[in-house]
Amino acid sequence: MLNRYPIWKYLIVLLVLAVGFIYALPNLYPEDPAIQISGERGVKAISQQNISQATSALEQAGIDVKATEINQGSALIRLEHANQQLSARSVVTDALGEGYVVALNLADSTPDWLRAIGAKPMKLGLDLRGGVHFLLEVDMDAAVTQRMNVDASAMRETLRDERIRYRDNSVRDRAITFSFLNEGELEKAEGELRSQYNQFEFTTRQQGREHQLVMTLTDKAVTDIQDYAVKQNLTTIRNRVNELGVSEPLVQRQGPSRIVVELPGVQDTAAAKRVVGATANLEFRLEAPADAQASEVETFGFRNDPSRKANLSNDVIITGDSVSSASQGFDQNGQPQVNINLDGPGGSKMNRATRSNIGKNMAVLYIEHKSRTRTVMENGKQVEKRTPYTEKGIISLATIQSALGNRFRITGLDSPTEASELSLLLRSGSLAAPIYFAQERTIGPSLGQENINRGVLSVEVGLVLVVLFMLLRYKAFGLIANTSLAINLSLLIAAMSLLGATLTLPGIAGIVLTLGMAVDANVLIYERIREELRNGMSPQQAIHAGYERAFTSILDANITTLLVALILFSIGTGPVKGFAVTLSLGILTSMFTGIMVSRAITNLTIGGKSLKKLWI
User: Fold this and answer.
1) Less CB within 10 Å around the terminal CB: N or C of the chain?
2) Structural domain of residue 345, as residue ranges?
């Protein structure tokens, strides 16, 4: 019998529609404006007392609190109105004091039964939903200083290996200085180092009874180091953002020393700020012997007990740059630890250092670069001044029991959260230079509301015009096409929600284009039906021929458009990718609804009936 589907085809259509409608449902539940509170470095867990303190301060400030919740050591305070977020953040920051990170957020309000099956609302881009915008400043002077400290450590090791005795060593400005007791030692040192470090200009001078070798970085070397620092930081931050799982982030260089980071629709803005802005690194050093010269020793406190001190050698065995992979774990006592894998050169250095120092202590030094910001008056205006500083603390100091290789573990961490973040930072790579937040902007949904309103209006206008055209042109069959069009829009939203695709303003343009293209298949089919009716076919035969013979044209047209969308996605960036994603998904859903769904509706309503005339 013509125009009848087998039962399994109807079941497939029903299954797809049911899944599509269910996974599109979360988009009907708007997110709640909220502020999120967490401890610095994720170490300090948020307690109910902190929540009570924050909510009391908010109530006194006249800010309505909708609900509060604590999850994995951080707190979320849901608010009634989005325009209260900025005020709420300031109030809570003042109430809790130092040691806490308070950030804006949008809290998911999807019902539990939908979340249980993995149904989530569609993500909105920075231009629609809002998100976090960071402008990071790379400390170019620190980049040069860090490189020179590494070079100075390598130079000291070279001189010791060659048994060239030096009296003192210093790193200042752009110069490394070695002091010798006699000119012969200086000449041997200069000959040995000049061949290895051609980025320095070598000069000698007499300082009292000492002969000094001064190695100054060339201007080109400084430029190269600074440029490398920005590029390396850019790569590291991209890796960190990928670890956070943010969809379609923007991480790009701006000018000679700045990096722009945009994280649309982030779920945990406090953690994003901690991880993106963290400038932590590790150094592995031996504990200095009691008879070591004062110039070769540095004293550090322990991070978890600053009153406890240890003297460490200036020489660095390896840094976090040598870590190839890192993962969080727990030791036999259930305490958090980080499992470390080193690269080849790093493993060789660690093995050589520990093999010859069995029985001695080795420390893991945690280094974190920070800045303090204060407001001062300059020329009658308030100006923010940033003062950079560095915190160094020992994580662990353990006795070397045997020679270490490429794998070992770090213990002495305060919490699993700290272990998790440290392993993330080591996996993504260390920063080549400290970075500071030159600008931080949280873009709330209100800023993108006008874009949302205009985008929704464009979809509505396009939808209404297409619906009217199809009704006027194809009458009853136009009603079938319009039903398929509504189903197509639901399936497109469900697909984007299910795949975690991010909707941006260009993506809305892709939806509008999809609505116009979605009825193309029906137009081809209906025009073919009309042609077959004019050729004398019966209504049922004309319907069958229309769907069968138009299929090839529909497939060819959509495949060519899909290829263009895939090319746009592969070579485009940012907004172009957003448009390409929406267009690609729209092509797939429109082919399904235009061919399968519309024919299923046609078969169920008029298939197999005796028709004398078609209203088309």
Assistant:
1) N
2) 278-429
